[in-house]
Structures are given as structure tokens and as C-alpha cells.
Structures
1.
Amino acid sequence: MEELIEYLPFLIPIVIIEMALAITALVHVLRHPNYRVGNKLMWILIVLFIQIVGPVVYFVFGRGEE
Amino acid sequence: MDILSVEHLSKNFGANKIIEDLTFSVQEHSIFGFIGQNGAGKTTTMKMVLGLLKPTSGNITVCGEHVTYGETKTNKYIGYLPDIPEFYGYMKPYEYLKLCGEITGLSSEKIKSKSEELLTLVDLDKANKKIGGFSRGMKQRLGIAQALLNEPKLLICDEPTSALDPIGRKEILDILYQVKGKTTVVFSTHILSDVERICDHIALLHGGKIALSGTLSDVKSKHKQDGLLIEFASQTDTRAFLDAPQLVPYITNVEQNNTRLILHTQDVQKLEVAVIAIISERHLLPIKFEVLEPTLESLFMEVVK
Amino acid sequence: MKAYIAFTKKEFCENLRTYKLFIMLCVFLLLGLMNPITAKITPQLLKSLMPEGMNITIMEPTALDSWAQFFKNVPQMGLSVLVIVFSGIMANEFSRGTLINMLTKGLSRKVVILSKFTMTTIIWTLSYALCFAATYAYTIYFWSSEGVSNILLSVFSLWLFGILLLAIILLGGVLFKNNYGVLLFTGGFVVALMLLNLSSTIQKYNPITLASSNMALLTNNMFVSDFTMPIVICVITIIASIGSAIMIFNKKQI
């Protein structure tokens, strides 16, 4: 495990970007409650718990008209 | 001069004949009402004028230039407002007009001044938000602004009022009336009261052909209606009136609804004289007496029947 | 030309405001960072998961492992995201009728296709460059670049294959009215290339080589000459796809 901690500086940017994706998507889900498919709760869960793919799928398929 | 002329135009979708041998023309500076039922082929005709659909046969000219399908040369003379105009929802009105202007090749100063002028005309100059949040009426108004951006000689509106509430409709009609001096307007509709409000020329499309056309007043006077309406206060008066033998030579048909009578005739003036003679002779006092004006609706019904 | 610039600007604005640019940059940067880290950490993870006393020699990772991750993740994950993000590029315009206004304003249909191709290519190039830069920086930081040959050609090949997919997406876009059709079309295209690869004669010309044999090129198991024909065929296919997309779109009634 010590070696893992050694790589922490390199892991942090990854975590930050993942968070950025998830949070941008989450904010959009909450502020635009019209979706092409699905409902708010479903998208919140998808966006927060499916890394990378969740936000991508939301922006491409879930995002409704503004 | 004819801004738009359509000659012997036909369009089939498979075996389905939508437009059959359609011929009409639109003069400069008129508001031309293109009337027809849903599915009569109004949108199809307009899309052919715009070169978006390929005619099966026939000829269309806009400002003297021939329209070819798939090419957009003649579209520089035309401003088009689709029935439900769709915009890029992520843009703001000014940005959208800028895009439209750049595509048409206007200079950037021209785009700026024109956008401001038109957005003021359609009352969207203060709506500086994304188009995605616009109401239907606002979109329709923005649609007119984008259609007028390149100062078209011909403005084509496809059912601009059909999807709107009364206030939205009035706004659109007022705007169309205002631009009358600057451009020629062709607009399709099935709402006859809109036509009577602003159009000076009309064409009625039925069964793929023009069933009626001309200036609004011409069409109305040609189809002078043959009716007199007379209403009495009581049933006895009504009966006494109908008993009069003098009426018989003039009347072709009588519609009766309680004490209200509609008398159809070949010659309204002679019938009027006879009716007045009868009521004065028999001391019958009508509570209503009127010569029926032909309405667009009755013409429409007559043609569609 | 003015219309082309205007419509390309509109495409940029669309990709920016519908978060497509953001997604592409994030995903590819993420992939770029993960490649070397995964290569570095995997052996240690394996070691720590191994039961006590068990003795397996685990090779120290090298720069090649990092690039192996790059040429595995970008074709699989990256290209999938690319196709998914841009699958609706034509369909969204058709289904909402937004193009009608543009076309009746005199915008030529050729310009629509070329603008979309330009903008998607730019976004793909940016994202891919970001991904490459991240992997490259970490890789030279962790390891020496010994034993890695032809890295530029390898990277270029995969980039070109991405452009081929963009051309296919546009062709699918004018053929089908919805983005699922485009996804199936593009997926079908890739599967077809894979099946064609079973024949050894076609293999030599198959553009899929550009996305699947990059490691062989790095380790000198394949040579630059092996990539010449696939690159030529790939470029021809790109031009043909865009050409036919324009031709079909010109004939299409909308």
C-alpha cells in the first residue's frame, strides 16, 4: 500500500477530472429537469456512481431541451 | 409584376396525387392568403417553391428566376417561416440572426443594424436569453425576424398562426401587416378570420387545385350571396309571412329555424322589394332583417362540399 | 467560404454549449492520465493481492506497458466515446428541423457536411493530442523510452482511424434519421473491418490495422511499410465517405 500512496500525486488529477465530469453533469441534471428519457433520481444515481460513462451517457442521451 | 408564379405544378407521393396542375401567381406588394384544409397540399407547394421538394412536373419562377430542386439560388429573394420554426436552442436571438446573416453573406454592420431593427419589430429586443426557453409565440416572432433579415422580396409563412393563442395570433398578424409595404407576403392558413383580417389576394386550394382565386373583394362579389335573413317575434307572424303568395316567384329555397328564416333567391333586390311589400301590407314587424353577405366561410364550405 | 466559416463557428458554439467539447476533453485527458498510472500500479496491485508465500515473478513495468495501455484504451474506450458523442450530429438537425432555416437561407448542403467534418475533426484532434500529451509526459517521467520505436507513426495511425470513424458517422448521419441508426452503422462498419481482417490478403490493406496493430509497430514486430497501404486505403475511404455523404445529402428531401 505504501507504493500506492507514493503515486497519490498522480492519482489526484484523475480524481479531480472525474469529479469535474460528475459535478458538471449533476448540476445540469438538477437545473434542467426535462430529460429525453428517465427521471431525475435515475440520472443523479447514474451521473454520480457510474464513473466517466455516466456523465457521458447523460449529456448525449439524457439531456433534454433547454 | 409577378413575384411568384406557379404553372401547371403537380406533385405525387407514390400513387398519391397531392398537387394536380396547380397554376397561380402572386403580385408584388400584396398579402396573399393561401387557404386550404389540413392536408390540402399547402406546405407541399411552399416547399416546392423553396426548392426543398422536387415537383413531379410543372414550373415555378420567383422574381423571374426558375426554381430548381436542391439548389438555393432563388432563395436569396425569399424569406421563409416554417409552420413550427426550429432554432438552435443553445443560441440567443442576436447570435442566431448573426449566423443567418453570415450565411446569406450580409456584412457585419448590416447584420447588426438589421438585427436590432427586426428584433424591435417583433418585440424580442429585450429577450436576451437562450432560444430554448422561448414560448411558441416568441419562436414564431423570431421566425419572422430571421425570415426578414435579408430583406426578401417574398416572405413565405407556413401557417404562422395555427399553433398560437389569440394574443400570439394578433401579434403575428400585426407584424405581417406592418411589413406589407416592404415585401410581398404569401401565407398559408386554414383560419379564415386571419385571411379576412389582413389579406388582399386569396387562393383557395382544394383537391390539389385552385378552387377560387382573386382579390378578396372580387371573390366575394363574384359569389354574391343569394340570401335574405328575416326574423319575427312570434311563430304566428312567421306563419303569416310565409303564407304570402307574392313570395313564391322569387324564392328558390327557405331555411327555417324557429322564427328565423333564410330566404334563398336568384335576385336579392326583387325579393327585398317583395318582402318589404308583404310586411307592410300585413303589418308584420320583423325584429331582424338583413341581406346576407357572403363570408369566406360560406365560400369555403361551398367549394369544399 | 463566408458561409462555411459561419457554419463552422456555429458547430463550435454547439459543441461547446451542449457539453460535447467538455466531455471529449475530459474523457481523453482522463484516459491519457490513466494509461501510465495503470501500467505502473497494476503489478503492485497484483503483488499485494497475491496470497502470502506465493511466488510469482512479476515483471517490472516499462514504457511499453504504458503505451500498451494507450493503444488498448483509446481504441476501445476513446473511440466508443467519440462515436457516441457525435452519433447525433446529423440526426439532431433532422429530427428538430433546424437545418430547414439554414438551407432556405441559401446555405449549401455541401457546406453543412464539410463544416461538421471540420469541427468534429478539430475536436477529435484536440482531445487526442491532450490524451497523447498526458500519457507521453508521465511515461517519460516514469521510464526511459528505450525499446519504443515508431511512436509518432503509431499515434498518427490511430488518429487517422478516428477521422475515418468521423467520416463514417457523417455518412451514417445522412443515411439514417436517428442516432441509433448511426451507432449501428458505425459499429457495423468496424465489425465488418474486423471480419475482413480474417482474410490474410485483405489484412494487408485493412485500415483497422491502424487501430489494432499499433503495439506491433512499437515493438518492431511490424514495419512502417506494413502501414503504408492501410493508411492509403483509410484516406481513400475517408474521402469517399465524405463525398458520398454530400451526394446523398444533396438528393435527400427534408
2.
Amino acid sequence: MHRSTRTRRLTVTATAGAAALALTLTACGSSDSDDTADSGSSNGDEEITLTVATFNEFGYEDLLTEYEDLNPNITVKQKKAATADEARDALRNSLGANSGASDIEAIEVDWLAEFKQYPDKFADLTSDSVEGRWLDWKTEAATLEDGALIGYGTDIGPEAVCYRADLFEAAGIPSDREGAAEFIGESWDDYFDAGKEFMASSDVPWFDSAGATWQGMINQVQNAYEENDGTIIATENPEVRETYDAVLTAAVDENLSAHLGQWSQDWTDSFQNDGFATMLCPGWMLGVIEGNAAGVEGWDIADTFPGGGGNWGGSYLTVPSQGENVEAAKELADWLTAPEQQMKAFAAKGTFPSQVEALDSEELAAATNPFFNDAPTGEILANRAEAVSVTPFKGPNYFPINTAMADAITRVDVDQTDDADSSWEKFVADVDALG
Amino acid sequence: MTAMPSAPAHVAPRPGNGKPAKRRGSAVRRPGWVTYGILGAFLAGSVFPIYWSYLIGSWDAQVLTRDPMPWWPGGNFFTNAATVIDTIPFWKATMNSFIVSATTAMTTVIFATLAGYAFAKLRFKGKGPLLVFVIATMAVPTQLGVVPLYLVMSKLGWTGSLTAVIVPALVTAFGVFWMTQYMGSAIPDELIEAARVDGASMIRTFWHIGLTAARPAAAMLALFTFIQTWTNFFWPFIVLGPENPTLPVALQQLQAAFFVDYSLVLAGATLATLPLLVLFIFVGRQLVAGIMQGAVKG
Amino acid sequence: MATTTRTPAPARGNTPRKPRRIGFGERFNRWDLKFSPYLYISPFFILFFITGLFPLFYTAFVSVHDWDTIMGQGTYVGMENFQFILSSPDFWKALRNTFSIFLLSSVPQVIIAITLAAVLDQNIRAKTFWRMGVLIPYVVTPVAVALIFSNLFADKFGLVNDMLGTFGIDPVGWHKEVLPSHFAIATMVNFRWTGYNILIFLAAMQAVPRDLYEAAVIDGAGRFRQFFSITVPQLRPTIIFVVITSTIGGLQIFDEPRMFDQFGRGGADGQWQTLTIYLYELGWTQGDFGRASAVAWLLFMLIVLIGIINFAITRRISTSGDKR
């Protein structure tokens, strides 16, 4: 157990996982015979080998074996990269070289738009069999202007707020799930005010880092950095500047932040030291918290998220057009992202489904997590997924602009080498340089 | 200092006449404890980070926050090592590192010996300028040609394969220079002349006389090339994918896993250090001799 | 490097060989004699032209184009990429960082290495043991070194700050402030290379003619005096050699700063972003090979320039006042 916990702890980023969430699920029955799978035999008896490139944990190991059993003429090999960033670089490289890409390539939502710039490099995956399979906003993000679909959704990262019930209690604040959700409130102002109230009777910082909080806030803005036509508006958009000021005022002026860089070693170590009382947690973050905070009791998860719902991360399966077996690859991608299969992946590695049918399933609703005080994490995250109302537009420059913004916030919150204004100026310069 | 061929040669090794000047201070006076104190402190500083790596790697992620922190190794090293091996393609990376290092060590020795032999012992037009050219290339940061080199590799479809790492490292200017220096003083010209008079072909002469004489220097060159390639990061990092890494590239994946569990990361660092550390136990003495021999000024 | 002159010219055959065979054998023989040398040296030159020289010049070609990593060569843009780089504060910051890290690593390294070499250059016991001991860090791969040291230099829970704390010194922001981060990175470089350079200096010291010291002793010079007025001047060529080799490598430093934090970009404010990291970021993260090539070319010229300065200094030193 110890070992498997720690393995999981490395498998972060969006698709990784809330495996703990899945642990309590019973293994899926073998009741589901899938009809799309049969169509795989349309390739005749020709022996083919398909490669699937994923990163972190998609939970596909058993599914791929199952697919091979259903389609005896097909051999499937999985190539796993350790991180999403690495997968991104590798995909860029093989698209540039026009060779070397796998038949199926997994893509993370934050850099999906970047690859949408090269529609010729990917096969159009539009198909009747996948109509209405996913949450609308999930499909929308992978759809090109001409209606072509370049990716099938796998998982999503609906966000809730994780909190330390023991620290809440010590500060004389309601620490049960409902009470905490109410205390945290509905808007970002509520959330920050709650922080001030909490810190009035506690020495522990309210949240871990301004950068992580920023992620939650900016993922609720429709066109934060770019217009739909790709025009960069990041530096003029008043909403961006207001959000920037809001998060930094809360983090620095009101000192609600623990001033930790997310994913830094200090951040990791802080889980053991009562480093902070709350943090925003997409489903895949639960496994991270459990790993980092091993031995710490008191973590719980509140069914709320400031400013409405929010999504952080999630992936797609794409089929690069350079492959030799595009049709067969498309069928496999279709089969893998079908609700039945996604639920098995969820059971295996906790990748939270983006498929409507899977979200409504009883299995999901029944999932609980012992580390988070036996919270009904399946139900909570499904609620959170439903609460997502805004699909942020992420154009080709989203990734670099957001990186520049994360740096800008880090300079003020963590490094404290700049104040909000001077750091903003550097951000503007960085964005201008992208032009 | 990253990928630079760490040239240990200042000027020629001079077997035979390079006898160091007789020790001053004479054999009678032994230095006192201050000397050993300084040396001991430096040695401790050299070894401590490696111990630290093992120390943290043998506990768990929380060890650093414990108060007081333990200074003896915990019992988790093998568990952590197993996790590392599961997380990154460790065996493949080790194998790859070995293949790349051994291949380049071999080819560098072959090509450098051939060229060194020609430069030191054969007559041909343009020899002087060509040798100067070789030496000059040692000062050229060819690493900066990464972009086109990368473009070439992807045109050839070599990105992601070990070929892309091996080919640019088949032979180095440093190797040629080193062998030239050595051959110049190690082989008497009369020997070559005699072989030629006997009617031996050039390659035969090289084979029987050049190669035999070159052995000690060739072994040293192989050793340095092996270590150099094994520890190299920049180019393999760029051109190899996550699928097919060398050891340093795989090690980088551990940290880049976007999440830092330092007991795992340092267990990985320890694992990656072990092979060369073991090698060092066997050849450390020769390595020291090689560096010092190469450094003796003429 | 006047080494070529020391290669003794092969004795010119004073007794012309009698042709032993005629015809093919003879022709082959002559051909063999004439072309074999070129054949032997050709692998190096072919390889160097393909993987060294050609890419360097092609870099210049790429640098004057729009060049997306996926779409390939775009339009000719002239000096635009260079203008962009030279007007970007990131470039100048990276340049500053590169030099700062380089100085922080090479200067103390040379001083410590010479001092330790002098310590080793005594009649100590277990010579081989100590010499091997100082060389151990050389076999640790830089990536591992960087991982270990970035842990030691962690801001909140790092050993170094803990130690400073016991002396009542406030924790240093190793991953936040410019100079401390350079210091930490330079420490990694020094860790790996000081021992190596100790051995080089040690070898050089052992080659210093003994009579110089004897003369000094007669003049009544103490050990420190001897060290500074004999050993150090005699080591000058070796010092220059060490500095030159470390310049070429040091200005291209990548591994250590890359691994200093989990993002590898050189800090949120570019505190420790070096030129090679900047090049990598432009080329492989932002996908702009044109700009990356411009940086490569600028860095290349910088290194060549420094090489020429080095060379000039070396010549001056070796021609003036060298009494050997």
C-alpha cells in the first residue's frame, strides 16, 4: 500500500490521480459489451499494431488488453510519458518531423489550442457515435471553427475547496462539510473575507499560493487573454487586471497566502507543517494532497467553489494524420472514451469522467474517500462538474500568456522581488514579446 | 562546464622523460595534522552531498520536516528505488546510457587513434594547418548548433533514437589531439620506417605498431569519453523523447513529474550515481593518473 | 599550443628504398603512402563538418527567418529576430546571469584548487587515497548534482538555511534572490569540478623545477613566500588553460540552472535564467527556432570573442617575462 501510494504521488497534472477516490469503487462488472468495439473488425483480418501515447496515468492498461481480445487482429501498445509537459514536447517534435507520432496522442486541455493551430496534422474525429457523449464545454474546446473535432474527451478536473477541518475547529469555525462550504461562501470576496476571519483566530495562512488561486479564478473568465479570433487582449482586459489585483491584495496585502510556489519543495513540505488551511482542489489534486499530507489528519472537501464552478485540466485523445492506420486509431479512441470504458479507467486510476452518462452513473455517485473524512467525493465532484458554466477560451497563446502570468504572480507572492505594479509591467513586456 | 569535452590535456603526456621534479621538503618531513585536517574537510565536502542523496532517499518525503532530522539512513531506500524504477524507464535508461557511452568511447578511440597516428607519425601535405585546425575546433562551442542539428536529425527521422546522440559524438577533437600528443612521443620513428622498408602497408604498420603502442592512452581516452557521454545532458535531453531516455534525461523526468517528493528524487539520483561510482572504485586510480599525466606541462 | 613543433619530423629516408615490386604493388604502395594519412584523419573532419561546422553556419540562416518548430521554414525576416532578442530584457538578464554564475564558479574554483593542490603537493601519507577522494564528485552526473544541491538549498526546509539558522542568520532566499541563486548554482559547478582541477594543478606543481625552490630557501623565503613567488607564477599557463576550458563550458551552462527548480525556466523573474536556457525556452517551449538561432549565434560570437581575448592575454603572458 505504501508503495502504491507513493507511485501515485508522482502522477500529477490534470489527468492523474484521484486514485484514492477510485479505491473504494467496486471493480466494474463485465456486463458491458460494447457495440463500437465490434466495428473495429471492419478493418478485416489485416494484422495491425496501434500505438497510444499517454502521460501520467490514464488507467488504460486493462482496457487495451480488453480491446485486443475484442479485435484479435489488432495489437495495441501504450507509450507513457512521465509528465504532460514532456508529452507536449514529444508531440511537437514528431509533428515537426512529420513522423514518429503515435496513432493516438493524448493532449492536455491547456495546450490543446496550441495544437489546434495545425488542423492538417490531425484527423477529423467527427462521428455520429460520439454525438452528445461529453459535457458541452468539453467538446467545444476540441472543435475547430469549421466544425471538425480533433479530440475525444477523456477526463476533466472539476474544482472544489479542500480544507483542514481540524484547523477550522481550532479557530472556532464550523468544520463540517456543509458548515465549511457555507463559511467559504460563494464568491471570491466571500472566500477572501472568510480567510480574514479565519486568520483572526489562527496563525495558519488561509491558502497555499496566489498562483494556484489565480488558476481557479482565471478559469472562470470567458475571454481572459485572447478574443475568439486570437487577438491578444491579456494586457488591456480590465477583468484580468482586476482579478490580478484581487488575488494579490488578498495574498500579499492581507497576507492570506502561505507564499509558496505551487509544486515547489517548500510547498510539498508545508503539508506536513500546517502550512495552510485551504486550497483549491480539482479532482486529480486529491491524490496529491493525500500523498503530501500522509499522516496528517483533518483534511476534508467542501462542496463549493468560489465564483461558480471551475475546471482545471483534463485531456483528449487525438489521432495525428501522419499515422498509417488512422481509421483503426479513430475507432480505438472512440471505444476508449466511451462512458463504460472511462468508468473503468476511473476505477483504475481515478481519472474523473467528462462523459455525461458516466457522470450520472451510480458507481460515481457511490465513491467515497477515506482520507478526506470519508467524503462522498464522487458526488461532490459530479456536482462541481455540473456547476461549471463558463468555458474559458484558450487560444494558441493561452499557454505562454498564462505562464507569464504565473511568473508575474510568483514574483509578488513568493519571491517578493516585485510589487504588484512592477510585476505587472514585466508581464506586459512578456506578453508583448509573444507578438 | 556542462557538455564541454573536459580536456585533461594541457600538453603532451611524456612517458619516460616526464619525471616530476624531485619532491621538495624531502622525504623526511611529514606534514602535520593541519594538512590532514584540510584534506579531510575537503573530502567530507566532496562525499557529503552523495551521502545526503542516499540519506534522504532512504527515508520518505516528510523526513526534512522532522525535528530533529535523522542523520542515519532509514529503511526505505529499496522501496523508493522500486518506485523510481516503476515511474521512469530506469533500466532502459541505464541500458541506453551504457550503449551510448560504450559506443562513443569505442569509436572515439578508433578514429582518434587513427587520426592521431597520422598526425604524429605520417608525412602528408597540409599536416600542420590541419592539426592547428583540430586544436582550434576544441575552442568552438559546437553545442550552439543545436537548432540545425536538431532539424537534420528530425529530417533523418533520428529524433528519439540513440543514433541521434551517438553520431555527433563519434569522435572528438580532444580525442584526436590527445592521441596525437601521445603517439608523438610513444613510438620511435625508426620502428615505422623499418616496417615500411619491410614492405608493410600503411594500415598494417598502424595496426602492428601504432595500435600496440597507443594502448595505454587509448584506454584513458575511452574512460574519459565514457564518463563524459554518460554524464551528458543537454543534447540527449533535446533530441531523445521521454520514451527512450539516457539516465540523466530519465532523472530529469523524476523531478519534472510536476511534483516533488524529494525522497524519491534523491533515491533516483543515488541510483543514477551508483554505476559510475562503482566504475570509479575500479578505475579511479587510472583516472587520477590520466588527468595528471595529461596536465603535465611541457 | 605550440605542440605541433614538438612532433619530430620523421627521418627522411636517406637511403632510397629499392623497389621490391613493380606494377600494381608499386602503384598501390605509392597511393597508400600518399592517401592513407588523409583517410585516417578523414573521419574526424567529415564528422566535424557535418555535425559541427555546418550546423553553426546553418544557424545563421535559420536566425534570419520565421521558423516555427512544427511548420518549418517561414519567410525571410532579416535582422528582426536579432532586434527582438537584443531589445528583450530577458536576453540581457540571461547574459548577466550567465556571467555572474561563471565568475562565481571559476574564480573561487581556481583559488581553492590551487590551495588544495599545494596541500596535496606535500609528502603526505596515502597519496592515492586523497587524490581519488577529491575526484569522486567528477563521476556524479550534473543532473544528479543539481537535484541534490537544490534540495540542500531549499528556501524553507533546506539544510543550508537550517545551518545558517543555528548561527542566528536569517534564511536566504536561494530560489528567490538573484545573487544567492547564482551562488547556489555555482556551488554545484564547483562541487563537480574543483577536484578535477586540483589534480591538474597538482601535476603542474610537481613539474616545477626544484632548483627554484632551493634558490628561494637560500634567499630565506618561507613557505608562503615560496608559494606566491614561485609556485603561482609557474602555474600561470595552467591557470590560463583551466580558465579557457571553463569559459567555453561555463558560458553554455544549462544542466544545473535547468534542474534548480521544478519548472526549469530559470525562476519567475529570470533570476537564474542563463543564455542556454533562454535559447531552449525560445526554441523548444515557445516553438520559435528563428529566435532561438539568433540567441545561439549571439552566444557563439560572444564565446569566440572571449576566446580571442583569452588568446591575446595568453600570448602576452607567455612572451613577456617568461624566464624559462
